[in-house]
């Protein structure tokens, strides 16, 4: 009889220890799975954020070209106005030039507003002031706008530098994500 009780106790003890071991392993696996899912979600959000930032920088560069085109159009209006004065043109010609100037001013205000709005959005996306590339990109955007508005010419070198800085930034971000996935 003690034999049966002893065997039952040993079997119960083995079953309990097996359950504890399985629960422990299951808990560890669950934690690792949760950690991997969190990392995957973080990487997904980071990639999405970087893609949005990349899109904003592309829109900014496009807006620079549009602003430059508006400046060229307004410079053409100045030439038309000078020619109209020299040739003693009638009032209708001056009215046409005036209407074109109003449209050009409206377009200039729109493109300028778009440039500054995009600059603000990029600064909100690139907010880490301790990252030298973030600071360099934001400073380069300032230079592009300053040169575009003060010289009324397309700051091609500054735009190229902005693109190069952005590419370097996104390359580093991509490497960080890849490194996180290896861990």
Characterization of this structure:
There is one protein chain. By secondary structure, the chain is an all-alpha fold. The chain has two domains: 1-31; 48-182, no CATH class. 91% of the residues lie in helices and 0% in strands. The protein has four helices and no strands. It has helices spanning 2-86, 91-125, 132-151, 156-182. α1 runs antiparallel to α4 (156-182). It is rod-shaped, with a radius of gyration of 32 Å. The mean pLDDT is 87.
Shape annotation: rod-shaped
The stretches of 5 or more residues where confidence is low (pLDDT under 50) are none
Tally of separate helices: 4
**SS-based class:** mainly alpha
Helical proportion, percent range: over 70%
Alpha-carbon distance between the termini?
56 Å
Q: Number of DSSP strands?
A: 0
Secondary-structure element pattern, one letter each: HHHH
Describe the oligomeric state of these chains in a short phrase.
single chain
Provide the number of structural domains.
2
Radius of gyration: 32 Å
Main sheet: strands, sense, barrel: none
Percent range for β-strand residues: under 5%
């Amino acid at each position: 009889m003690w034999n049966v009780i002893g065997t039952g106790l040993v079997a119960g003890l083995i079953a309990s220890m097996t359950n504890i071991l399985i629960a422990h392993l299951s808990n560890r696996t669950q934690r690792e799975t949760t950690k991997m899912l969190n990392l995957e979600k973080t990487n997904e959000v980071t990639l999405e954020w970087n893609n949005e930032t990349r899109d904003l920088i592309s829109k900014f560069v496009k807006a620079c070209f549009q602003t430059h085109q508006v400046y060229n159009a307004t410079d053409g209006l100045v030439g038309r106005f000078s020619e109209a004065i020299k040739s003693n043109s009638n009032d209708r010609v001056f009215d046409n030039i005036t209407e074109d100037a109003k449209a050009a001013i409206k377009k200039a205000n729109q493109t300028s507003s778009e440039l500054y709005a995009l600059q603000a959005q990029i600064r909100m996306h690139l907010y880490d002031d301790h990252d030298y590339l973030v600071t360099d990109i934001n400073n380069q955007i300032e230079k592009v706008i300053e040169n575009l508005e003060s010289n009324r010419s397309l700051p091609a070198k500054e735009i190229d530098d902005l693109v190069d800085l952005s590419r370097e930034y996104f390359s580093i971000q991509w490497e960080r994500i890849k490194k996180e996935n290896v861990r």
